[in-house]
Structure formats: structure tokens, C-alpha cells
Amino acid sequence: MREGVKRIAVLPGDGIGPEITREAVRVLELIAEVRGHRFDLVYGKIGGIAVDEEGTPLPDETVRLCRESDAVLLGAVGGPKWDKGPTHLRPETGLLGIRKAIGLYANLRPITVFPSLIHASTLKPDVLAGVDILILRELTGGLYFGQPRGRRQTADGVEVVDTLQYSEHEIRRILRLGFELARARRKRLVSVDKANVLESSRLWREIAEEVARDYPDVELVHMLVDNAAMQLVRNPRQFDVLVTENMFGDILSDEAAMITGSIGMLPSASLGSEGPGLYEPIHGSAPDIAGQNVANPLATILSVALMLRHSLGMEDEARAVEAAVRAVLDAGHRTRDLAGPGEPALTTAEMGDKVRAALRACLS
After folding, report:
1. Is the same domain home to 146 and 251?
2. Which residue in the list 40, 52, 214, 226 is annotated as catalytic?
3. Is 124 within any annotated ligand binding site?
4. Are 242 and 223 in a shared domain?
5. Do strands 277-281 and 267-272 pair parallel, antiparallel, or not at all (unpaired)?
6. 146 and 170 in one domain?
7. In this structure, are 223 and 301 located in the same domain?
8. Are residues 144 and 255 in the same domain?
9. Which of 203, 218, 243, 359 is deepest in the core (most CB within 10 A)?
10. 63 known member of a binding site
């Protein structure tokens, strides 16, 4: 790697992944042009396209590429074409696998309401005003990784097993990060669990209480996951940092997409103790609109802002990207998912062009 060059692994993936990733890459190219940074963008395969071309959703070459990079930009994986295949050939297995392979354990999902989009949500504007939430999701444990798992035929039909498994170490490190993030924000941490039913959640709650002793300035609130789901739409302003296990975080952050008006607005950052971070929109591959140039690229572009901030040490550039997105939305520009009845909608590429024009002004 040349001195001063930041290597970024780009994994476009499936469905709308290549379209939205293309717009995010163009944002990086503009930042390099205006600010004199040097980005080495190296492409790899993951998900369904990797199954088709390499016979596996996560080729060894992709793992090597990611491990040797400063950051990873990922589009989306999956689609009905691969839904009926064996587990080891499912595109989602590639996504789970790359998180494990590069040691990512914490997924940050900021939920921010842009004032100009406050009417795009189905929730009332007075409920949404001022909402600024950070959902912190554990990535390496829980039902998605527990063993044993599988299905077998019994006399009464098919029997299935999924195991929810967590270690004390996994729980403690995500909770500690949650307290650190809350301390840097508004000093309120809501820990979400299902401690009235699950033994894993009871351990989670015990460890949360232990870790809280090291953060006397941060308020710790325990909340059962079903109540948290209700509270997110009833009174989202009560949340600052919300920390939870893998599956609960997956579901709650998708629910929170309705707060922002569209799942196409939500970026994410997956981080580990060392090595590259992985940045991706939280939405899926949307195969029903793939290739139509109508997908919203803003979540992917905002994921680039997170990359600039957390992996590349470019805070000023990160804020410029966020300001550019805000300016474009304030100017009334919308993709199809955000446009109201009768409102014109930009294509994916047109929205990317608008953001880059605004970004050039923000960087000048």
C-alpha cells in the first residue's frame, strides 16, 4: 500500500447493490479530487453474485481483500433467486461470514429525522421532531450464529432447532461500547432485552448492571424488547443510545426506519476492536426494483460519511457529506420512496448528482 493511500474494499453485491454503491463511490472520488486524498478502490464479490460466479457467497479472495483494506463498503446481498438453496450457499451467509472474518462485533445504526422529511413518515410530526437515536446492535452472537441448528424429520413432522448463544465476553464488550457512546452523547443508555423469558437476557441484564458501575454519569434503563418496539413509535425522543443483542437490534432498527420516512435513509457502520470497519445501508437488495435506476442511494452515501468518520479519520469530510444530503433534501429533491403523491422523483443517478453538487460546495 502506497503511503497516504487509503484502501477501500468495495463489495456491490446483489439487486440494487451495484446501483447505490456506484453513487457512493462517486462521492469518495469527489472527496479525493477536492481534498487531495488518495483512495485505492478495489472491488470484490459477495452474496448471490459470488455464488453464481465463484460457487460460494464469500470467496477467500474477498476475505483477503477486506482484511487488507482500511474500510469496506458493501451494497446489499440476497434475492429470491437464491432463497431455496442450502444454508451454506445463501447470500446472507456471506454477509454473516464477512462480519465474523474481520472481527466485527458492533453495528451502529443512527436514526436521524431530517426536518425536511418529517412529513414523509407515517408518524405525526410532533412525535418526530428532534429525534436523534443511535441503535447499537451486537453482531457476533445470538440466534444468527448459535449451534446446534438445523431440522430433522420426526414422526410428527419436521422439527427445527435454532440456538441462542452468547458468551459473557461478547455481552460485556458491546455494553461497554454502548456506555462509551452514550457518555459522548446525552448520557442515557437503554439496554433492550427479554429478561422475563430468556436466560441469555438475564445474563445480559446482570452484566449491564456491572458495567454501569464504571459509568456513574450515564443513566442505564432496562427495557423489554416488546416494550421497546412500542416506545420507538410512541415516543422515540426518549431514546439516546439503545443497545441490544443481534436479532432484536436487526428488527428494531428496521422498525425505526419508519421514523425517518424510508428504510432508504438509514446507514450503518459495523466495527471491531481492530481491522477495517464495514459500511452499508441497512436495507436489502430490493430485487423488484433492481436495474431500474429508482433506488434511493442516500443510505449508502450516508454510510460513506460513517466510513470517513470512524475508519478514515476524516471528520470534516464526513460532516460535509451529511450536510450535502441535508441540503439536497431541504431543496425538495426526492427519490421515489420519499416522494409524496404527485411529487416528481429523481432517479438513483440524479440523486447522486445532486448530492455531489452540494458536496462540492460544502467542501470548497
Report:
1. yes
2. 226
3. no
4. yes
5. antiparallel
6. yes
7. no
8. yes
9. 243
10. no
163 in a known ligand binding site: no
Active site residue 187: no
Residue 169: CATH number of its domain: 3.40.718.10
The cell numbers describing 253, all together, are 432498527
Which residue out of 6, 14, 70, 144 is catalytically annotated? 144
353 and 306 in one domain?
Answer: yes
Let me know if 144 is a catalytic residue.
Answer: yes
Active-site entry in 132, 162, 187, 254: 254
Which residue among 14, 240, 250, 337 is the active-site one? Answer: 250
Q: How far is residue 75 CA from its own chain's centroid?
A: 11
Does 295 reside within a domain? yes
Q: Residue type for 341, please?
A: P
Within 8 A by CB and 6+ apart from 289, the residues are: 16, 295
Which residue in 194, 215, 279, 337 is the catalytic one? 194
Based on the residue annotation, tell me whether 226 is a catalytic residue of this protein: yes
Asked if 166 is an active-site residue, the reply is no
14 catalytic? Reply is no
Give, for all 364 residues of the chain, the pLDDT tens digit: 566 899 999 999 999 999 999 999 999 999 999 999 999 999 999 999 999 999 999 999 999 999 999 999 999 999 999 988 888 999 999 998 999 899 999 999 999 999 999 988 889 999 999 999 999 999 999 998 889 999 999 999 999 999 999 999 999 999 999 999 999 999 999 999 999 999 999 999 999 999 999 999 999 999 999 999 999 999 999 999 999 999 999 999 989 888 888 889 999 999 998 889 999 999 999 999 999 999 999 999 999 999 999 999 999 999 999 999 999 999 999 999 999 888 899 999 999 999 999 999 999 8
Q: Is 81 annotated as belonging to a binding site?
A: yes
Closest among 195, 217, 190 to 206, alpha carbons compared: 195
Number of domains in the chain: 2
The domain in which residue 169 lies consists of: 121-260
132 is in an annotated binding site: no
